[in-house]
């Protein structure tokens, strides 16, 4: 058990399709993880990291309704468990299996919930999940920008993708909790801000700043503002669909994961077009705005920067993001973890995965030969310096976390491991029934 501050990294596992579904952009393949996964887990341990954002490739694992190929997941998750690395399991990262099609498919939410349930049943020792990664980004890139998956460019397509992604996420949370009642959901989402470039751009910027909250508003059952309600209703969401989100939220099991890159802030022109603004407010100010809206514990779940010509750009960005985390903590915001994403360099993210060029992007703690980068050295030292200093301030994570360990007995009832946890009493009070085997 642990309640330590969560220093993390992740294995980049995006897998959208491009070119009208003809090409699958599988980042774990491009970055060599299928071949070098043991070495990758060695690297995690060398850094002193105990939390890893990681997930099986859905397109090769979920092979049909009720059909799964767990072979790769069985190997990798067993190894993580033996090493004592706690995965934050990412079950859907920007793509779906070919047989589902894309995020316009109304069957996706129920199919995905069944997949999440099957995963949680097979790996009952796993406690932390990100069921659907960056729902806002996925819906925007797939159905508003036309870059991935369905490659559509309409408001109706965006709303359709968004409601399916968030409903799938909510249903998956409920399904996982039936298997693991003390599961905690760290919802990784892009934290954005849109700056009006002129007085004529104020209105479009206001609309974009409202729209960026839609995925988390729906996920956490928060009523959207009037403009966004009309936007959703005008573009295909029914009243019944909207009320599903209000009535099925699980905020008390959630940590809000906020992702921040130098590209997360935007300038808005009078005609509604946007361009990069660079870092204006920064992570702390934007995360404070998100926290004030949702009032759930926070984790910085993604950041990185290219190692540039001088060689220290990524290290300086790491220091800046960490200073922002400390500022939030000192201001009383319950921030419980930090993540440099990802462990290794990535491939083709300079084109947002729109082009299949095989271009390595020097964003990782290690390069693709698994040689540590200067930012990796800096992160290792940061973890060593701060890991014993920062207690968690999160209500959700002051409850015991079950750190992975090799299975004691295959025959043992999985809930038996929870009998002595404070969280059992908490759940029994909430649910009105006992989880203990001796009752």
Describe the protein in words.
- With 439 residues, this protein is of the alpha/beta class.
- The chain has one domain: TIM Barrel, CATH 3.20.20.
- Helices cover 40% and strands 16% of the residues.
- The chain is built from 16 helices and 17 strands.
- The protein has helices at 27-30, 33-46, 58-61, 71-83, 108-122, 135-143, 155-179, 202-211, 214-219, 226-234, 239-247, 283-294, 313-330, 374-386, 395-398, 422-431, and strands at residues 6-10, 17-18, 23-24, 51-54, 62-64, 67-68, 86-92, 128-132, 184-190, 193-196, 254-259, 265-268, 274-276, 298-302, 335-341, 346-347, 360-361.
- Helix 2 (33-46) runs parallel beside helix 4, helix 5 runs parallel beside helix 7 (155-179) and helix 6 (135-143) packs antiparallel against helix 7 (155-179).
- The radius of gyration is 21 Å and the shape is globular.
- The model is unreliable at 393-399, 410-428 and 430-439 (pLDDT under 50).
- Keywords: Hydrolase.
- It holds the Pfam family Glyco_hydro_1.
Number of strands: 17
User: What class do helices, strands and sheet pairing give?
Assistant: alpha/beta
Q: Which stretches of 5+ consecutive residues score pLDDT under 50?
A: 393-399, 410-428, 430-439
Shape: globular
* Cα-atom radius of gyration: 21 Å
CATH homologous superfamily name? Glycosidases
Helical proportion? 25-40%
* Annotation field: number of helices: 16
Distance between the termini: 24 Å
Text of the CATH class: Alpha Beta
CATH architecture: Alpha-Beta Barrel
Q: What share of residues are in beta strands?
A: 15-25%
What name is given to the CATH topology? TIM Barrel
Tally of separate domains = 1
Described by strand count, sense and barrel closure, the largest sheet is: 8 strands, parallel, barrel
Q: What order do the strands of the largest sheet run in, or round the barrel if closed? A: 1-4-7-8-9-11-14-15
Kindly state the mean pLDDT as a whole number? 92
């Amino acid at each position: 058990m642990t309640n330590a501050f969560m220093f993390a990294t992740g294995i980049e596992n995006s897998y959208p399709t491009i070119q009208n579904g003809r090409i699958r952009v599988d980042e774990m393949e491009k970055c060599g993880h299928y071949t070098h996964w043991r070495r990758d887990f060695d690297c995690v341990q060398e850094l002193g990291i105990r939390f890893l954002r990681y997930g099986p490739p859905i397109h090769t694992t979920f092979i049909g309704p009720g059909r799964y190929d767990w072979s790769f997941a069985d190997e990798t998750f067993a190894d993580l468990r033996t090493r004592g690395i706690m995965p934050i399991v990412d079950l859907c990262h920007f793509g779906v299996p070919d047989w589902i099609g894309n995020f316009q498919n109304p069957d996706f939410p129920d199919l995905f919930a069944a997949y999440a349930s099957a995963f949680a049943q097979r790996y009952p020792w796993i406690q932390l999940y990100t069921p659907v990664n960056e729902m806002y980004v996925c819906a925007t890139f797939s159905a508003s920008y036309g870059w991935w998956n369905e490659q559509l460019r309409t408001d109706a397509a965006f709303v359709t993708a968004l409601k399916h992604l968030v409903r799938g996420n909510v249903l998956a949370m409920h399904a996982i909790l039936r298997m693991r009642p003390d599961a905690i959901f760290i919802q990784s989402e892009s934290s954005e801000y849109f700056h009006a470039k002129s007085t004529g751009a104020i209105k479009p910027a206001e609309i974009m700043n409202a729209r960026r909250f839609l995925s988390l508003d729906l996920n956490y059952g928060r009523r959207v503002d009037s403009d966004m309600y009309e936007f959703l209703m005008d573009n295909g969401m029914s009243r019944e669909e909207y009320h599903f989100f209000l009535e099925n939220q699980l905020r008390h099991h959630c940590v809000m994961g906020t992702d921040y890159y130098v590209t997360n802030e935007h300038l808005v022109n009078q005609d509604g077009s946007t361009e990069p603004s660079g870092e204006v407010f920064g992570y702390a100010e934007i995360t404070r705005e998100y926290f004030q809206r949702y009032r759930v514990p926070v984790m910085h779940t993604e950041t990185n920067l290219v190692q540039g010509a001088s060689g220290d750009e990524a290290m300086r960005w790491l220091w800046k993001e960490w200073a922002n985390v400390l500022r939030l903590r000192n201001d009383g915001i319950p921030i419980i973890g930090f993540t440099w994403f990802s462990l290794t360099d990535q491939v083709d993210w300079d084109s947002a995965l729109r082009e299949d060029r095989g271009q390595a992007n020097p964003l990782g703690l290690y390069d693709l030969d698994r040689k540590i980068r200067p930012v990796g050295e800096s992160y290792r030292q940061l973890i060593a310096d701060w890991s014993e200093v920062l207690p968690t301030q999160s209500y959700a994570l002051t409850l015991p976390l079950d750190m992975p360990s090799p299975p004691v007995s295959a025959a043992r009832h999985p809930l038996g491991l929870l009998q002595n946890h404070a969280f059992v009493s908490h759940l029994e009070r909430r649910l009105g029934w006992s989880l203990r085997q001796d009752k």
